Amino acid sequence: RLMAQRADKRGVLQTMSYQNGRSSGDGYQTIESSMSNVDSNGSGPNWKKWGIGAIAVVVLGLIGVSMAKPGHSAAQSSASASEISANGKMKLFDELHRYVLEDYDAKPTFASFLPGVAGLYGKPVWSFYVNRGQGVASFGSKTKDFPMLEFNAANKAYQLTPFIGFRTFVKTLRGKRSEDYEPFAPGASRNLDSTDQEAEAEKPKRIMYVGSNEFEVREINADLGLTTSAKYIVLPEESFGALVRRVNFTNTGADSLTLSALDGLAQMEPVGGKLDWGLKEMSRTLEGWFGVYHATDDLTMPFYRMSTEPTDEAAVKIEKAGHYCLAFVESDDAHANLLPIVYDTSKVFGQSTPLEVPQAFKVSTVEDIVAAPQYGDAKTSSAFAALGSVELAPGESIAITTFYGRAEHVKNVPKIAKKITKAGYASGKFERARSLINELTAGVETNTTSKLFDGAIKQMYLDNSLRGGMPHILGDVDDDAKYSNFDEDERVKVFHAFSRIHGDLERDYNAFLIDDTYFSQGPGNFRDVAQNRREDVTLSPRIGAFNVKMFLSYIQADGYEPLTVEAVVYMISDPNEAAQIAALTTADTNSSDILTNILNGGPFRPGQLFNLIDELDVKLSVDKENFLDQVVAVAENIPMAVYGSGYWADHWEYYLDLIESYLAIYPDGEETLMYDNELRYFFSSATVKARSDKYVLTMTYDGKGHHVQQLDSTYFDDEKAAEQEAFKDVNTGLIGIDANWQRTEEAGRAFKSSPIAKLFLLGAIKYATRDAWGMGVEYEGGRPGWNDAMNGLPGMVGSGMPETYEMYLLLKYVKDVVDKYGRAVVIPAELNKMVKVVNKALYKLENSGWEEPDDLPFAVPEQLFEYWDIVASARENYRNDVQYYFSGNTTALEAEDVSDMIGRWLDQIEAGMARAMKFGSHGFGDDGTSGIPPSYFSYEVTKWTKNKGKNDVGLPLVNARAMKVGRFPIFLEGPVRQMKTIIDDKENLKSLYQKVLNSGLRDDKLKMYLLSADLKGQSYDMGRMMAFAPGWLENQSIWMHMSYKYYLELIRGELFEELFFEMKGGGMLPYMDPDVYGRSLMECSSFLASSKFPDPETQGRGFSARLSGSTAEFLSIWKLMFIGPKPFFIDDNGDLKMQLVPALPEFFFRDDESGSDPTFDEDGNYVVSFKLFASITVTYHNPTGSNLFRVKPSKYIITMEDGKTEKIEGPEIPTKLAKKIRKIYGVSSIDVYF
Predict the structure, then answer these.
(1) What is the Cα–Cα distance from 576 to 572, expressed in whole angstroms?
(2) Is 749 left (phi over 0), alpha (psi -120 to 50) or beta?
């Protein structure tokens, strides 16, 4: 047995023996160690800053490790037999269901990320990776302003990651052959385009494995007999956050191998305030603040921080927080020793400033490098773990595990070190990272013969939750609460964790935020969150109408919504209740008093609450879950949002989806939801200008004339801001949350309306915002709709048919509700005034004698223009009336009057939709006769008068006197939205499908659909899409979200054959060509470069990873496939019933192409299964294995948790059982027979 000698912190020489241990099922060999270099109390000397190598003798012994006997086969760290398919190529997925990418660094680039999910009671870090170098391109905490490895946009990350990211330098000795070697070095990448592939095959083999909550890179060097792998996770369920990296070395040779190594980050950024801007703009100057400090008297706990935050302000902030790097040879059986860290970059790279060649490493031993002085002042440092000479027998492995994180004080680092070096801690966290995600995605657990699909739906659900938030039920303080939903028990609350805006290496324009707290979450864009929460209630019925109520609360008096949605906050209004909760949940009087003050101190989120408890040393007497349930049960649930910039035209379009999903689970809750709730109106600090203040006379782009543009449509309203200032807290200087809700002027209370009234208000305002031809809804708020690359369209006085189709559906729904329940709709008196003017103008138009000609002129007829002008003025006058306050007066509109009124409006909307079809689209190769509905129109103001006003830059303002309409090429959004209005007309729907299939929207090469047809010849006025090359971003590319919206309408309209033709034909994940897509088939992209893109090598590749609305559409498709459109319904007798009518293709039951064997029950029926409500296993028994397209079941067998069964003959589940299933009360499984 080889021995390693070291001196401990007190200078006492000790002799240590190291033995190889067994890994606990993760496939990694770990190393045992019998002592730690951390004191038993976890503390160490504070703020020791290193300048010399005076104690090198102390740390030299830390890096020597050797082993005596093999325990890990070489095959486990190379490509195992299970990963090789029959054709000799590697399978797409390994046994852990991770996507496998061979020769990853030799293939086209892609960027992705670890999900940043540490569990409800964990503190996440963010981490982005690319398929270059060792993967991780940047990581840090909270936002890109707080990096440990600097955030770089994707194009730079592809270049820099192999050099400034994680690096590994190894010295090997086998017999007499010694080498210095860098695994994953870019110079040794294979060239897949080389004509000499035999020579390329001699280079190391590199593989990337992409899992849902981990990724790994592996290099197999057959010549050297060494396999190196690096695996990454975000530390789950811990009170501190960290990126965890495990590097594994395996001797795959026939004889012993001696190696030593440096492994870690080439560049490690310190803590020092918001750094991203400084790192980009003044990085050299910034280094003057940099320093490396230490928590102990050796080199094992470096602490990277700036001396102060880098400002020139009078108030100087001394920085106490820092980043740590803790590394050790992993053990499952004994406490591990920390390895020394080399932080002086020059001691590794010498004067190789590009960091390409480790010049100093090549001329020194690892021991000599550690023994030499290191300096960390005024420069960017490194973070390399130093591993001394280790002898590996054939098949033997050694694993170095390193934690990179942030601590608020250097004194916390030894405590963290003591915890993470415990036996089995690291391996347990790697296993938990995987099981945690499996638990979180259990709600869509699916088992078919298509294992690709089964895996894809779980990834889709995860990514959907990262954009919209994953709902968690709180307030379960007793059994009554546990079996109630959000609407039934006011103690039950819903909190969405893990959400964030989609900022990443490719979406570098977005400033993401991932709170490093328990119940971590960050804000998101309104449309993203609204869409991605569509199926929340489908997967978790206890949510009830939470999302519907929250989003309808965001409707403003002007008919718009804020840009950014934040997580709800909680507030306890009764001080006595706060004191009572504090007394019941704390361990001592002092803690009770502190907690009482916290709970009475204003609104809070769970993460903030737990942070305060930790900071103020509140001692709880109950567990965290129990404590939080008791607190939120007595708290009020308050939605939060932020105005942002401009008013987007599509935000309201997602309300009906939320309502329909709710009604599919709670059809018996509609009347109560619509009439018996009161919702506030969001109050933003921006106001929409009247036309006379935003129609600007300006030069045309060629400078040869003038034209009228609609510019600067909204403005920051100082008077609204002053109104919000009334809610400023005199102690904190912060504006209270009540400032977000519009009030009545006299009473000063938030004005409220029922949901049906708010929907009526919304529909009425959108109806009054139709364009002059009565076709599209105007983009008069300064922003376009879903297709935000049409950012110039508002300036073109543009309008959108997508909004018209959605308005039509909204008003139809309101009419259906008032017809069904016959109850009055109580609206603000100001709105009633507007409606009267609108209806009077409509009456005048109907009696004007104007008749629509067969051939429509582009110029707007005088009668229509006059009607448009009157209605638009009424809308502007209404907004002026409610700009700051509601009067508080209301008007009750009788149901019959509402129904008649909306009926007349619907007639006008239908006439406008018909006109739009007559005008059609127009573009390159498009004469407007395709029969595909147009998406957008523009309006040229042909006559105007100056109104003596000027805009902020002095340009004259005008009043429009005449207009003519302009057309655009076809876009996919138009037919997608129109399909929703003809969803019950299967013949018409199928006809439209064929038209789109045979149009310029079809990418025949890729068998997918383009966002737009050819834009050649279009004006740059329309927006940024014209700035891009065809096939890239929004210019004639394949925008996956809109394509999936299209596929969703196919299954909604029961065009099953068409949907599954598209799916299996490669138009949908996970059935695309992996070599073309270029990334994991589990992960959506925002867009694919289409076949219109000039470079054929780029065509079909996915860009802007994940966090796409595509996931919301995929989940809805999954629901309609496995559950059906209306699992709960009210029968003709008014009773609640349940039915499961799936739409499952044959290839889910049996598919020779998939390579998976079908599953049978004991009677020989083909079966597939899924989880209903994340709890109840539903199994479909199909005797023939053929398509099940809305076939009604012949019987159900329902098994209860106590083992009893209920057999139901026929297609419907009766009321009593239906309610139990919906409450997930005592039901274990449902077997459905056909």
Answers:
(1) 10
(2) beta
